Amino acid sequence: MKIVETVEKVREQVRSWHREGLSVGLVPTMGYLHEGHKSLIDRAVAENDRVVVSVFVNPMQFGPSEDLESYPRDMERDAALCEEARASLIFHPQPEEMYPEGFSSYVDMNTLTEGLCGKSRPIHFRGVCTVVAKLFHIAEPDRAYFGQKDAQQLAVIRHMVNDLSFGIEIVGCPIVREEDGLAKSSRNTYLNQDERNAALVLSRSLKKGRESVEGGEKSAAALAGRIRKEIQAEPLAKIDYVEVVDWNTLEPVEEIHKPVLVAIAVYIGKTRLIDNFIYE
Ligand code: PAF
After folding, report:
1. Burial level of 242, CB count in 10 A (0-12/13-18/19+)?
2. Atom 5 of ligand 1 has which residue's CA nearest to it?
3. Domains of the chain
4. Residues contacting residue 50 through CB under 8 Å, at least 6 positions apart
5. What is the predicted pLDDT for the residue at 240?
6. Residue 56 CA to ligand 1 centre (angstroms)
7. Active-site residue list
8. What is the pTM of this model?
9. Which amino acid residue places its CA nearest to atom 6 of ligand 1?
10. Which residues of the chain fall below pLDDT 70?
């Protein structure tokens, strides 16, 4: 497995694979890889001849008061995980490689990005769309892999790929959880022991929510209320949002009778965590 830092070196390698008729999968990440990322790499390895993993903490998707500086990083560990998962190449650029001096072009979207995480993170999706569009141009993959934990991101990327005719298949992969239900996230490392226990309220409240839909609940407001009540019972938790939206448009729904995304964002102490389920 190679680790390269420049756009030119990725291009050179990927184009030679394409010339040999090999398919290429891309797994975009911000590093500090965990089992969730590994599941994306495993799927990419199973479905493609070669797999590129990008490891880049993208400054453009962090707001001014967010955790860019403290975001966990461990390239050595990431490289070992990628090697073991049989990725072929890691692209690990410095910010100047992705955003050279004078950089001033962006990819933005005026649907899908305003609600949910977009409300409290107004510049986030412009940063995500811009960096992912760049990664797609650099790695020229046949398929790219994203986790369903960032469900809005998955919907936004699918929409961008369709709008801008990227010709790349976007593969959404299921949420990977700890044994006790907490969705895997690099940000879980911010939690102290009390917060780690309190964080279980996310998966627990969604489980209650799922049970009530499966039990026949049709009102989105009642479902959201059920989930909110569970979260509010946890003293260390503060709700950012609890939303029930159409899974294709991300517009809020009143009644549950098409595929809906039930998504939550909750602060546990200072750490903002997200989780969701899709009810088909
Ligand atoms: O999901 C992430 O880790 C990031 O948002 C992504 C897709 C790698 C873009 O920086």
Report:
1. buried
2. 128
3. 2-173 (3.40.50.620), 186-279 (3.30.1300.10)
4. 14, 17, 22, 23, 24, 25, 88, 89
5. 98
6. 8
7. 37
8. 0.97
9. 29
10. none
Residue 29 φ then ψ, to 5°: -140, 165
| Predicted pLDDT of residue 258 | 79
Choosing from 27, 132, 145 the residue with most ligand 1 atoms within 8 A of its CB, the one to mutate for a pocket test is 132
Residue with the nearest Cα to atom 9 of ligand 1?
A: 128
Specify the ligand 1 atom closest to the Cα of 57.
10
Q: Which pLDDT belongs to residue 257? A: 87
Q: Which residues touch 240 (CB under 8 Å, ≥6 apart)?
A: 120, 264, 265, 266, 267, 272
Query: Exposure string (b/e) for 217-230, b if CB count within 10 Å is 16 or more?
Result: eebbeebbebbbeb
Task: Give the distance (Å) from ligand 1 centre to CA of residue 117.
Answer: 14
Residue 275: predicted pLDDT: 98
- Nearest residue (by CA) to ligand 1, atom 1, is 29
Distance CA 227, CA 221 (A): 10
pLDDT digits (tens, 9 = 90+) for 178-222: 999 999 999 999 999 999 999 999 999 999 999 999 999 999 999
CA of 128 to the centre of ligand 1 (A): 6
